[in-house]
Amino acid sequence: MRLLTFNALFTGDVRPRLRALGRVLRESDVDIACLQEVLYRSTARLLRRHFPHSACAGAVVLKGGLVLLSRLPVRRPRFVRFPMSGPPRPEFLMRKGVLIAEIGDLVVMNTHLSANRDDDWSPGNRFSSVARAELEVLAAELAAIDRSRPVVVTGDLNLPRDSVALVDFRRSAGLADAMAGDPRPTYRPLPQWPNPPAFDHILTRGCAAEHADLVLQDEVVLPGGRRAHLSDHFGVAAEIHLA
User: Fold this and answer.
1) Which of 238, 185, 175, 182 is nearest to 212 (CA)?
2) For a disulfide at 81, which of 46, 97, 208, 235, Cβ 3.0-4.6 Å?
3) Which co-factors does it depend on (predicted)?
């Protein structure tokens, strides 16, 4: 199965970009798409209509802004919310958490952790405790899944690959990083931030991720003919092979 994670960006030409993204995904070889920052059920429909199966939570505003699209049946989807801890911030309105679902034997955990507003991922930073609290939720949900089940934890973790919090989480949870050793950013470089880190990750337990790479990097033609990037993030895709 080919799996993609992609932060779809919740501001700026949202509907035209999501229409274009839906077309791109429909024509791609992606079997499972884990999306973040899709805030409304009405805009999620622009994507869900291109896949026979999907999962999200929330009647109007989507919990966590999380959407899972699949060409294979999706079973037992559920949303687990993160604790509202740390400095007050607008992100509280997004009700961040993790969307968990079963696709065949595979358990997929699509998530979006809180952003570090200081761009400082040292252990003593005020947002590092927020990240650790949210990772503890993921760790608890992982621990409750039978070790014989293959699991993918994926999404915008808002943590660089080499951050202490993420390294500790991967090690304690027994997760392998599909993009291990790759120095490329997954956030689009800007003049004011020319060297951002990799925030978007595919982590696996009990299965293998092969041919992982960055995708959705180029501009596309939006409805109406204007060209634009699909997001301020790049996508990460990999082939997931079950044992």
Assistant:
1) 238
2) 97
3) Mg(2+); Mn(2+)
